[in-house]
Structures are given as C-alpha cells and as structure tokens.
Amino acid sequence: MDDTVAISMCHCDSCRHATGEICVSYHPIEAPVLSDLNNTSTYTSSDGWTRHFCATCGCHILRRRESDGSPEYEVATGILIGSSSDKPGLTVVFKRHVEVSDTKDGGSSVWISEVDGNKIDLDPEPQSVDHAVKRHPTETRTPKDALPASCDCGTVSFHITRPDATSLLPRSNFPDLTHAYCSTPASTLSNPSNVKWWLCPGEKYRAGTCTCRSCRLISGFEIQTWAFVPRSNIHFHAPSPGSVDGTTTVPLDFQTLPAGILTSYASSPDVQREFCGGCGATVFWHDKWRPDLIDVSVGLLRAEDGARAEAWLDWWTERVSFSDDAETGRVESQARWARGLVSGLEKGLELWTQEG
C-alpha cells in the first residue's frame, strides 16, 4: 500500500487573504469529531471552502467542502504534531504549487522549488482563469501612491504609505531575521547604533520569512512572512456611516481603533498579535519594547506587482527567522518534513538571490 501523502502549497487569492499567509498547505484527513471544533469560528470563502479557525488566537485549524456529494476535510499542516504511533513508512511529500497565477509574480513558489531532493511541480495555469483586472474595495479607498491591504472578508482594511520622516522615529533591537538570537551577543542585538534596519533603499520596507513555533501555531501554517512597517505609515479604513463609501481613514492606534475590526491575542508576555475575527486572517505582531514598529502579515497586501510586493518590500534572504524552531514541539514524520521544508526554503532563498 502506498503510504505517501502528497501535499500542495496553495497560492490562491482566497487562501492568502483569508489567512494572511503568502501560501498555505493542508493535509487531508477523515471527518473530525465535531465536538473538537466547539471553540472555532467559521468562514466560507469564495472558493467553496468553509474554514475553521480558533476564536481565541485566530489559528486556522481545518477546512471542509462538499466534493461529489461527500464532505472533504483538510487540516492545516502547521498544527500537526505527530506521535510515536506514526506509521513507520509514512512519507509526506510537498508535491506541487497550485493557483500560482493568482500571485502575479509567483509568490513564494520562486523560493521553494525542491524539498528533500524532491522537485516541487508547478501546476499549469488554469484554463478557466479570468485575467480581467478586478479592483478590490480596499484599492478604491487607497490613495494612488499607497499600498492597499485587506483580509478576505473585508473586515480588516488599511493602506501603507511610503517611508517618511516619521518612519525614522521608532527604535528597535535587531530581529532574529537579521541577527540569530541563539548566537549573537546581547550587546549587538540591542542595536546600540540605532540602525533603522526596517528601512531599505528605494523607499522600501524590510520583509522576511519566519518559521518559529509561535507564528506557526498562531497562523496554522509552516511559513509566516512579515513586513516591518512603522505604525505611522499604516492607515485604517474604519466604518463611517455618514461618509460617501461608509468608511473613513484613521491612523493605526490600537487604543482608539473602533471595536470589531481587530481581535487581539497575547501570544507571550508583552506581545500582542491581531487577527480578523471574521475570516481568521493574521494581521499584526507587535510588542511593548517597540510599539511604533509593526510586523504586517504580507498575505494581506494587494500590490499591483504581485504577492511579494517587491515595489514596496525588500526581502531579506540571508536567513529564515527562527529556522531552528521548525521542529519544536513536533515528533516523527511531522518533525522530518517540517525540517525538510525549511531547509528547502533556505536553499531557495539563496538561489533566488543569486539569480536576481
């Protein structure tokens, strides 16, 4: 009997904006015990999947849909732990990238071409794709020279402006993305020269990948992508019944932002993460030590040039943040293929830099 499970990495618009991730992956399962889903919220996206996510932290758990009259279930791979009862011969293979045409620029598929020596197939572009340009409501509310962003259900809607004088005001230690916490002296990590590492040439913001256990269990997926943006450059589209389109633009202020837009969760002491309570999309990460510099989940961005938003973001490719954490809390096959995926991502980023 073939014990190989082929996993696809999906790059479609629905998956990206309903999760906040630049790509997602799911593992097929049998029907779950419904009582196990009591603390989940649900959202049905336009692709027909009903997505279950944790009502407390926003972690995507599973999705389901009808297939040929029968329910089909898939669990988000980031929450899989594994156990000693795993089948010894079970092999999980990341097999293909799907719906890549939605990204416009290839998204993260350009970084992950091989995992554990297995080439990742690129599905041919669907023949039924409508290539007509469709403007999302977020884009119509966004100034011409700004970058629109929103979740799939539209509850979270904001735009980002180019760096300006206020972008220099935050102070921040170096992140694990650029300086490995496990091997860099604290005196260096503290950024004594006050380097504005989040600002890059070409009026761009630093962006990068993270595979820490916390991000994985908050999103439900293997790879989190963050853009580092000063709070002063983030402007929300808040409900305003008296306005022409029912919204008004307000600076991001977590204390005064109208209720019902963001749901917050403290993933560790003095660290807050925000997600959309409507569709479960990961939105922000921020902490008390650098309150004016915000990690923005890249899957929300609606850049004209594509999912990687390279006209706005400069991607750090020398390191995957907390890559050593990919196996933490996992055993057996889950630990093996998680390590294989992260290793593939690291090699892919290096090749992408050389080829670029």
Automatic annotation (TrEMBL):
It comes from the Eukaryota. Residues 1-102 form the CENP-V/GFA domain. The lineage of its organism: Eukaryota, Fungi, Dikarya, Ascomycota, Pezizomycotina. InterPro entries: CENP-V/GFA, Mss4-like_sf. The keyword Lipid biosynthesis does not apply. Belongs to the Gfa family. GO terms for molecular function: carbon-sulfur lyase activity; metal ion binding. This is Related to DUF636 domain protein. Gene3D superfamilies: glutathione-dependent formaldehyde- activating enzyme (gfa) (3.90.1590.10). Keywords: Lyase, Metal-binding, Zinc. PROSITE patterns: CENP_V_GFA. SUPFAM superfamilies: Mss4-like.
